[in-house]
Structures are given as structure tokens and as C-alpha cells.
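User: Here's a chain of 189 residues. Predict its fold as C-alpha cells.
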Amino acid sequence: HMHMPNDCIDFKGDVKEITERLKIHNLVTVGIKEKNDKISSVGEDIAEALINLCDFLIIEADGAKMLPLKAPASHEPVILKNTTMVVGVAGIDSLNKSIKETCHRPQQVCNILKQNDNYVIKPKDIAILLSSEKGQKKGVHECKNAIYIALINKVDNKELLDLAEEICEYLQQNNIKSIITSYKEFNEV
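Assistant: Prediction complete.
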């Protein structure tokens, strides 16, 4: 379940509506309206059909309830078998906070890191969660042609950039490509 953008198509089975919107807009969000202005998945069969309508189909396979770090439950993530890229996302703002205050599904995070929920997240912990088959890489091996990329988000200053680069070095040692993103402009000193 994710927040419904203003321009979202509340899918009721009409693929023509999506096709027409794609003729006008580069980006179309599709979901089934739920309560509280949230949308849920259209389902695997519909998602498979939508692949033929667009150049890129991006599916949120596993939400984190607006928290920066998580590990999936047994039923997550939901990844289509013909997926070509899986992106594991972690917010760097989880650093120096306890598992219980910054992680969705804290018990799963505790299990992967072998720590209790008062444990404070360090850079290597983010890398472990992004590289673990029980963490963000869960289910990737089931996709025949999928590549996996780790994305470290909210890197909004030089200090955080240094920490993100430390995480990327660990990921690189494990043959995982990574991307660092920021939504704020900052100048390096």
C-alpha cells in the first residue's frame, strides 16, 4: 500500500485508459484505490499485461511504512519472475538510530544483524541489509535475468556522502553495484 499521487489512475480493468494517458504523459501511476488515499497492487496478471504498454514498468514490491530501513517478512517482496532489475533501497538517515526507532519489521532486521532492537545502526549494517539474501536481495535469485542494485537515499551533505561511500565500498567487496542519491543540493567543501 502506498500513498496515492494526485494523477494516479484508479485501475478498474480498463487498459485503454492507461494507453491513452501514456500518449500524453511520460509517467503514469496505476493502482487500485484503497481507504485512506492509498493504492494497492493491480495484481501480478495485470502487471504482466502492463509490461507491453510501456518502456519501463516500475513496481514497488515491498514498502517500508515511510521508515528508512527494513528487512522483508516471509511474504515479501513480491517480484515478478521476468523482472530485469531489482533496486534495494536504504535511507542513510537510519544511521546512529536504534533498530526499533528506524526500521520497519525490526525483528527481521535484528535477526539479520544478530542484534537486539536497541542496537544502533552503523554504515556496515546498512550494507549487510542491502546485500543479504534475507534482506533487500531476497527473491532476486528467482528472477532469471535480474540485476540487483543497492540505492542509498537521502545523502544530503558531505558527511553523509562519506558514510554512503563507506557503505558502497562494502557492497563493492560483495560484487554489488550501488547508487547514492540526494534530493537536496549541497556543495562539497
